[in-house]
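URGENT: need a sanity check before tomorrow's submission.

F., can you look over the Primosomal protein DnaI record below? I want to be sure the sequence and structure line up before it goes out.
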Amino acid sequence: MESFGKELKALIPDGFAKRQAAVLERLANHPEVHRLKAEFPDRTDDLTEPKRYRDLSQHISYCDKCSECPGLLDCQNEQKGHTSVAEPSPTKGDELVFRLRKCPLLAAYEREQGIGQRIKSHYIPAHILNATFEDIEPDPQRISAIVAAINFCDEFVPGETTKGLYFYGQMGVGKSRIVGAIAQELAKRDVSVLMVYVPDFLLEVKDAIGSKTETVESKLDALRTVPVLILDDIGAESLTTWTRDEVLGPILQRRMERLTTIYTSNLTMSELKQHLANVKDSKPSEQKQNDKKAARIFERIEPFVKILPVGGRNRRRG
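Structure tokens as predicted:
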């Protein structure tokens, strides 16, 4: 047994013990170890013992590389986008364990990727979908509408907030960008949003009837059930009796008092009510009936929104 011990000792390179001791000493003097001992004084007695070398060494390596972070794309850690954190062991009360966690850069990247998945749109330009409140100029004619939009986002509670917003004003004053910023902000909070340009969407639904009924029904169901629906430029569409009574009406009926709907329009509320009554395929003899149907749909909109005028210059013309 003694000869075996001598043989084993002979296999160990000269200076190995000294190099190991130097490594452990360097680890013991590392600022991160001092920080851990200060934060967890009762759990770090064995931290620099040889048996903890591997775990502590990996933790220090991650900390050092994170302290000189070159960005997510050029991350030098073995598991990119992760950092090492120390926490009390759930099973050994007197010991620290080291775990890998997503770093803030990776978490932010995944959050940004998820935003695109949580904002669905039909016929909405990219510059509207990508709008943020930081991008919107808070000029006096629309500052109250912008503040109301920000407050709406701050106070929004999924499953509880049902009252939406109705932004109205002349063309080009920035109504769509405001609701685009709302969509971005809610998506950052993991709220699913669907934004639809009403004139083109209703035209698509009308053209698809009879040929792609299943597809149309799935799109309509998305409008009925999404947590936040944004109907952009309502009132600019050419309404027919069918699109008003069989498409718009049922969507709003399903959503009122349950889910949040936000609108933009060039029309005031009274003008919108008149628009809903003046469908292009109706006869003069049907006007009274149309007035009643319009009033019924109007009652699914007006009581469930805060009405916000948006003023200012036409920004499309510079």
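My own read: The longest helix spans residues 53-67. Residues 117-317 form a domain with the Rossmann fold fold (CATH 3.40.50.300). If you see anything odd, call me.
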